[in-house]
Request: fold
Amino acid sequence: MAKKAESQWDGFSLKPKKEMPAGLWLKCPGCEQTLFKKKVTENLDVCPQCNYHFRIGAEARIKYLADEGTFEQFLADMVTSDPLSFSYRGTKYKERAKAAEKTAAGKEAILVGKAFIKGRPVMLAVMDFNFLGGSMGAVVGEKLSTAIEKAIEDSLPLIVVSSSGGARMHEGVVSLGQMAKTSAALAKLDDSGGLFISLLTDPTTGGVTASFAMLGDVIIAEPQALIGFAGPRTIYETIKVELPEGFQRAEFLLEHGFIDMIVHRRDMRSEIARIIDYCGKNPA
Ligand SMILES: [Zn+2]
Reply:
């Protein structure tokens, strides 16, 4: 469609063709068509041609998931203490983290807060891939654990949206400790009879998959999301084995019983609301 519009313009004007401003068009990795970015955004960042679900940051995710203006964030200012005084190729981790704030929705790779979804009060935690690949360090672990504790206190359903490259290597074993910390907090939520809906988006990998992301009472994934522990490239480079077609994609995981359902982004709010009601966790 985009190409057609362009050729029509050529016929009407002899002026030199203006270059499109950067970022106005994008190419869909699913169908390889050139798409008008505005149309994609209006469609919740899903390709109108082939339903490819684009990766989105935490801000857009909250916008698409929560009732408008209801997200009340807490612990927004928590930043890493850089427990290992880590630096990589001449750049200090703290400086990298500070720089990452410019591309991300907040000061860390997760945003936590109370919100409403179709009128149902929830505790919402949304990872942000735009902050150091959505990696889990001590701050992500602490913010998520606090959100879980508050969900227990206030008897709120917990919704966690994962979008992560895994544990944050800049924090070494401290980042791995967050797997146990968040899993222990979820065990308490489970003991209290709470509901945890885990939403896996592209990509959900590493220590996040190996801990809280796969512990949901109900595990939902977006279509075609990459979900796994080690990524396909790492597996191939380590054991030199070609993986089956579609391995680690949401559809493959559903077929093999690792997740409960795949839901289109436009239906996510309704589906989560339905699960909350079905589980009897809607106090209204
Ligand atoms: Zn497409």
Remarks:
- Residues 28, 30-31, 33, 47, 49-50, 52 surround zinc ion (CB under 6 Å).
